[in-house]
Amino acid sequence: MRIKKLVQINLLHLILFISLASMFVTLLNSYFTFYHVQKKLLVEQATKVNASYSAKLAMTVNNFFSVSEEQLSYSARLIVSHIQSGNLRALQTDLQRIHQLSHAFNSMVVVTATGQIIAASPMSLNLTGITLTSSQHLMAQKEKRFIISSPYTSLSGNYIIFVSQPIFDDMGNYLGYIGGSLYLNNRRILNEFMNTQFSNDSFNTYVIDKEGTIIYHHDITQIGTKFSDPAMLSSVNGQDKGDFMMPDEQRIPSPASFIRTQKSGWIIITQQSFHSIEEALNNVMVNVLKQGTPLGIVTLMMLSILTYYIAKPLRQLAKSASSMEQPGVINKIRSVNAWYLEVEQLKRVLLMGTVLLHKRIGRLSSEAHTDPLSGMLNRRGMLESMEEVRGEYKKVSVIAIDIDHFKVINDSFGHDMGDEVIRKLSQQIRKNFRKTDLVCRIGGEEFLILLPGADIHVATVIAERLRNNVANTIYMPGSQHHQVTISVGVTTFNPQKSTLDVAIKTADNALYKAKNSGRNQVVVEYLSDDISLVQH
């Protein structure tokens, strides 16, 4: 209790708290939504950049091997005469010159059809005279076309890729091949280009051959090892390019793109680490907070001012309501600046008095005014609703309705069927009358309808139409031989001259006459004091 006294929660504090909480939740939701959207965009952007880098590197690799093929093809034509004449010195000289001019290979050799190396550059490798028996040599001899080998360890102990071009004489006879090696553990042409293009620490680049061996990676220790995700390589078989998620060096799934080169069939994978994406995302979110903070402060100030002006008239009305017994309270209420609709309505209600307010609140009770089975007004609801319209109309028609032989329906088909008949009839009655008409169930199978402003002729036509509709409606499927009908009594009265009770009794008398006359009919009876209402 002491805490409650110390912390007085008034309307100003409550509105301000709700407003701030709503603003905070909205901003928080917007922030996280923007975070996830921006993250998705950055991942998509990283994927596009990866694809672009992979494509650029693939184009460079393709160009490199295309140029290499042209150079080797030209060199093969250049040295064919030396091979035919057996001039090995001239062959060695031309090979060294070709090697120095091309800058494409770490070493070059000329191999005869029997597999013997007859020229090599640089000469320091001491390869001349050696006969080759490796699988790469056998493939070059067998295929007799431009070949890019898989990585292997050369006679000199270097981990290399060997590129070869066959040599033919003018008659098309196979004389051997000329080839060049690329040292994978050394930086040379292709490797240097890759390191130049992908020196950024946020990128991770793999070049993988057809067997899944890593040909290039910024970490030299991985060159020559098998790619760590063979399942991924299997999934891209038959595809030339694509995107996927792959664990980075910190084992965090990160976007990656691959492309397959045309000449060599290598797979080039470019991956941007998730850490770099997250860092960029954090920078964006920090900038959003920095740029949004001034606007948030201005919004908070405006919200506080608006909350004060919203709460001020309500606070004044609350003070007036707490001292309603004082003589000058009405003037205080009238002096309140009710600048929006709700305060204006509350101000008007307070001026009408607490008793009237409680009385109106009581009238809103659905349980006290509505019949639960039919959904119509009950007798109490009808009487109170009639009081509200009594002074507005000089004539009100009354229609009393009773279901014929309702007891027989209950006895023959059970009370559930009887309740269903009442519900269906209630729906049909509501469809036949205006929204301004007071449609009531006053007990059992009896209904009463008050039609404000309607004369007795209109009421009679409506009653007859309802009776006819009911008579032609099947209420109990499977019991067509027992048709539901109603008897109806109609009257009209002037609320300023007669009472509703008198009008109801008159309508009931007409109803009983309808029942005594054979049921399923409408009977009209006039009040003697209100006979003028039937005249046009």
TrEMBL record:
- What SUPFAM superfamilies is this protein classified in? Nucleotide cyclase, Sensory domain-like
- Give TM segment ranges: 12-32
Its localization reads: Cell membrane
Q: What class of enzyme is it?
A: transferase
**Membrane topology, from the record:** Multi-pass membrane protein
Domain named GGDEF is located at 394-527
Mind listing the GO molecular function terms for this protein? diguanylate cyclase activity
Q: Which reaction does it catalyse?
A: 2 GTP = 3',3'-c-di-GMP + 2 diphosphate
Enzyme Commission numbers on file = 2.7.7.65
Cofactor requirements of the protein: Mg(2+)
Protein name (record): diguanylate cyclase
Q: What is the lineage of its organism?
A: Bacteria, Pseudomonadati, Pseudomonadota, Gammaproteobacteria, Enterobacterales
